[in-house]
Write a structure and sequence with these properties.
alpha/beta, 2 domains, 14 helices, 19% strand, globular
Length: 474
């Protein structure tokens, strides 16, 4: 069975996060979006771990569901931790995800962090003074089933490979525990294709999750697991096994369906067949750090320009924020392989790894954004909300609309709330996104990029630092 997982989320106890990021609301939105497994997020926070214990019960080994409800949504115990410390004469700022197999393990890790002087009360994403190597040693000494996954690994300020405060390699960051790092998370400003160019990631899994701060942002990036039986161990097995050659069968880019966890309890446990089937991606150009630039001076440059002109702003003469694309090219010593893609029977463009070391991926635009542009409106308008809800209800969920539903069905159902002509426009928008026929202006220095479906982008305002949005993610 296929399970769509978003395993990097935040609760209402993290900074700049919507109060709607509570477990019941998250589960409600997961069904609307077509997600099966969510991160609890933030289990280091003392109030949130209490709410987790009050509201969730174990459904399958290491996975949880809402108590007293026939909910199909499962939760995995995941938290993001920010480490700020000095190493090699430089201040490092590294963010890591921890996947825990049990609440007991969470509580033991929390107690150990507090014992080392870490403040877990101020933020759901705590800031600690431990190095990445010390953190992984602490976690694995408590429970070797837990996982550490470096997250949004390219963001300049807070990541493994970050140009301003990161490292050049996993070995340099994690030291003697480097071999325990079996996966990384792409972040919004990079996609798997970019990460395939890094040699040390050839034998590691490339994961994608949303880092959402509000329910509507969940699932904008996610990872699809193919599992015989839904358990924490089988998800871990899939992550630890990135090569398609080590799994039975081959990855199909046909109409993949995500199933709920119902009916999986009596299935035999066959971890060897567990694998990552594909990932769903944000357009990396829309990420806040894709290109190099200086937001205050409204100056941006491509990687080619950065190589020839350097990293000093020509306007104010201060250092530019080096973008993700340039940083990837800098660490990809052998240069980039040519991108390989293929359309499936639904007209969806899939990006394939020519070496077959990693599964394929697809880049999508969120459905509410497609509808908003189609109707010349905003994602917060009532007519966009009505059209979105109608499509999700009538055609299954958001991912089903984006990946599988027929164009005619999309047009017909969108017309119910948007009008007949507008329904066809929405369907055309979905079709263009499936084929990758879009226009982009890359983001830079903390400013989101623009992704447009129709070619009127030159007439649009430049994007602002969308601080009013709650998706202040990396």
């Amino acid at each position: 069975m296929d399970y769509v997982a978003d395993l990097h989320l935040h609760s209402k106890y993290s900074r700049a996060v919507s109060k709607d990021m509570n477990l019941p609301t998250m589960a409600f939105w997961a069904e609307k979006k077509g997600l099966n497994i969510l991160s609890t997020g933030d289990w280091t926070h003392p109030i949130w771990i209490r709410e987790i214990k009050q509201n969730l019960e174990e459904a399958e080994k290491g996975l949880f569901k809402l108590k007293n409800e026939n909910s199909k949504i499962r939760f995995l115990l995941s938290v993001e931790i920010s480490g700020i410390y000095s190493q090699g004469g430089k201040v490092r700022r590294i963010h890591n995800l921890i996947f825990s197999p049990s609440i007991e393990t969470c509580e033991k890790i929390n107690a150990s962090l507090v014992k080392r002087g870490c403040n877990l009360n101020s933020d759901g994403r705590p800031i600690i003074g431990l190095s990445a190597e010390s953190l992984i040693e602490l976690v694995l000494s408590i429970d070797d089933k837990a996982m550490i996954i470096p997250c949004h690994v390219w963001t300049p300020w807070f990541s493994l490979y970050g140009s301003n405060s990161g490292f050049d390699s996993i070995d340099e960051c994690f030291g003697k525990f480097a071999d325990k790092i079996t996966a990384i998370e792409t972040g919004l400003s990079s996609d798997p294709y970019m990460n395939w160019q890094i040699k040390e990631l050839n034998n590691r899994s490339i994961l994608s999750f949303s880092d959402a701060h509000s329910p509507a942002k969940m699932g904008r990036e996610s990872t699809v697991f193919e599992l015989e039986k839904l358990t924490f161990d089988n998800i871990k097995n899939a992550i630890m096994k990135p090569s398609l050659k080590s799994t039975t069968g081959s990855t199909s880019i046909k109409e993949s369906s995500a199933h709920s966890p119902r009916g999986t309890r009596d299935t035999s446990d066959t971890p060897d067949t567990s694998r990552i089937k594909y990932t769903i991606e944000f357009y990396p150009e829309e990420g806040k750090y894709h290109f190099t630039g200086h937001r205050n001076c409204d100056y941006v440059q491509t990687p080619e320009q950065t190589r020839s002109q350097g990293t000093i702003c020509p306007v104010c003469k201060r250092p530019l924020t080096v973008g993700v694309m340039h940083r990837v090219e800098d660490l990809a010593k052998d240069g980039f392989e040519k991108e390989v893609s293929k359309l499936n029977s639904n007209g969806v463009k899939w990006i394939l790894d020519p070496s077959k070391k990693h599964p394929p991926f697809v880049k999508l635009v969120p459905l509410n954004e497609i509808i908003a542009e189609s109707l010349s409106s905003t994602v917060s308008s009532q007519k966009v909300k009505d059209a979105y809800n109608n499509l999700c209800e009538e055609l299954g969920n958001e991912l089903n609309v984006l990946l599988k539903a027929s164009v005619s069905d999309i047009a017909k159902n969108a017309a119910h709330s948007a009008g007949s002509g507008q329904g066809e426009k929405v369907a055309e928008g979905v079709e263009k996104v499936r084929k990758g026929e879009i226009v982009m202006v890359p983001g830079f220095d903390g400013q989101y990029g623009i992704v447009k479906i129709w070619k009127d982008i030159q007439n649009k305002e430049k994007p602002q630092d969308l601080a009013s949005q709650l998706g202040i993610d990396f």
